[in-house]
Design a protein that fits this description.
alpha+beta; Nuclear Transport Factor 2, Chain: A; seven-stranded mixed beta sheet; 4 helices; 7 strands
Length: 174
């Protein structure tokens, strides 16, 4: 089942470029009414440029339709994917090979998109797309399953570099 989550993450593919260690920074003066403070102040704004949203949605559609050829052009040279029970960090080619194996174990995948949001940090240092959807699939033996998914996708230079997948499995009905 762990490999199945990698597949579910396919749309979740991405990342890796170079991550910089987080240095201990001075804590930003917090609003005294809040219980936590930040080490780096963020000023997120909606991203009016639809390119990142288009890239993230196209990646998810490529996963849904088992199209690793389409995925190839959307992923950076290296990718980092976090999913339930594990993570993948490697090259685009390694990821596409792994995701293809997972996708081939499915007869079908269907995504019911519920919402999305594309944001960019005011200093243009980070760009993310978040997607909320239901995913249904049928495995190669005919068994169906589904889950509620929430993905955060980081993009750099128009390519997917990190994919963080959060999933809520439905409780089987008795």
């Amino acid at each position: 089942m762990k490999k199945g989550h990698l597949l579910l993450l396919a749309p979740l593919l991405m990342v890796a470029c170079q991550t910089k260690p987080i240095a201990k920074a001075a804590t930003i003066k917090a609003d005294s009414t809040l219980p936590y403070s930040l080490t780096k102040e963020r000023t997120w704004q909606m991203n009016a440029d639809k390119h990142n949203l288009q890239t993230a949605l196209t990646m998810l559609k490529a996963f849904e339709t088992n199209d690793t050829t389409a995925m190839r052009g959307l992923i950076a040279d290296s990718i980092h994917v976090y999913y339930e029970g594990g993570e993948f960090k490697g090259t685009r080619a390694e990821f596409l090979k792994a995701i293809k194996q997972e996708m081939d174990m499915r007869k079908s995948v269907h995504v019911d998109m519920e919402d999305w949001e594309s944001v960019i940090d005011k200093d243009k240092g980070e760009e993310w797309v978040s997607m909320w959807y239901k995913q249904k699939w049928q495995n190669d033996k005919g068994k169906t399953d589904s889950l509620q998914a929430y993905n955060d996708v980081q993009l750099k230079g128009g390519k997917l570099v990190r994919w963080v997948d959060y999933a809520r499995h439905y409780t089987p009905r008795k």
